[in-house]
Amino acid sequence: FSHRSGSLNAGGTAWQVWQQIGANPPQAVSPENAPPLDYVLPEFGITMPFCLGDFTQINTPLNEIMVSRAVRLLNPQPHEHVADLFCGLGNFTLPLARRAKSVVGAEGAEHLVRRAAANARANGIGNARFVAADLFRATPKLLAKLGAFDKLLLDPPRAGAYAVVQALGGKIRPCRIVYVSCNPATLARDAAVLADKAGDDAKRAASEAADDVKRTSDKLSQGVRWLGEKTVQGAVWTIEKTVQGAQWVAGKTTQGVQWLAEKTRAVGGAISQSAQKARDAIAEAGRTIAGLFNR
Q: Residues with catalytic annotation?
C-alpha cells in the first residue's frame, strides 16, 4: 500500500507493508509506526483516508480520471440533489458534493458508511449524508427513503445493480444516470432494463405532450370563438351606432332646412311689407306735390 506523504523513492511514494493472519486485525510490518493511509483527488480538493481492507481503486491516477469523468457526465448543478448508490468510502460522493446542493450516499456495509461520513467531515463537506441499505434488495420504498434526487450515480460491484434499476420509475425518476461498471455483462443486463424504462417514460412523455397539445388547441379554439363573437358584437354595435348617428344627422339636417325655410319666408314677407310701404309713401308724396301745383 502506498502513502503520498513520504518520499522514500523518486516517485514521492512511501510504501507500507502489512500482514493479516486469519481473522486477526492487520498489522503494519514496515514501517512499524506507519502513517495513516489516504489518497487524493486534487481536482476536487479532497483527501480520502482509508484503512487496510477498505475497498479502493489501486490505480490512483486512473481513479482521478474516472471520478473526474463521472462527475462531468453527471453534471450536477448547484440546485440539484444527487444520489450515489454503492458509495463505499465516498469516492464519488464527496466530489459530487462539491458541485451539487446535496448528495446522499447509500452502501450495504455499515462500517463503510461510518468511514464515508468521517471522510466527509475530514474534508469539511456538510452537504453529504450516508445511509446503510441493502441495495441488492432495493425496492421503490427503499429508494424513496433516500429522499428526492434529481440525478443518480451507480457504482456497483461485479454483481451489478439489477434490483436498483428495477426499482426505478414512478416518482423515482432521475433525469440523468451515470453507471460506473466493472463487469460488462451485468452492465448490459442493467442497461437493457433502463432502456426499457426509458422507452416507457418516452411513451408516457409523448402521451402527456399530446394531452398538453390538445388542451392548448382547445384553449386556442375557445379563444378564437370568443374573439369571433366579440368581433361580431363589435361590428353590430358599430353598425347600430352608425345608423343612429346617420339618423341623428338626418334629423338635425331636416330641422335645419325647415328652420332656414321658415326664416327665408319670414324675411321675404318682411321685404314685401317694406316694399309696399315704400310704394305707398311714394304715392302719398306724389299726391302732395300735385296738390301744391294745383293751388
A: 182
Pairing between β-strand 46-50 and β-strand 37-41 as defined by DSSP bridges: antiparallel
CA distance 82 to 64: 20
Q: Is 13 helix (H, G, I), strand (E, B) or coil?
A: coil
What H or E segment, with its residue span, contains residue 2? strand 2-3
Q: How far apart are CA 83 and CA 150, in angstroms?
A: 8
152-188 pLDDT, tens digit per residue, is 999 999 999 999 999 999 889 999 999 999 999 999 9
Confidence of residue 209 (pLDDT cuts 50, 70, 90): very low
Sign (positive/negative) of CA torsion 136, 140, 145, 147?
positive
**CA-based nearest residue to 46, from 96, 83, 5, 3:** 96
In 75-157, the DSSP E strands lie at 81-85, 102-107, 128-132, 151-154
Q: Is 210 exposed, middle or buried (0-12, 13-18, 19+ CB in 10 A)?
A: exposed
Are 146 and 131 contacting, i.e. CB atoms less than 8 angstroms apart?
yes
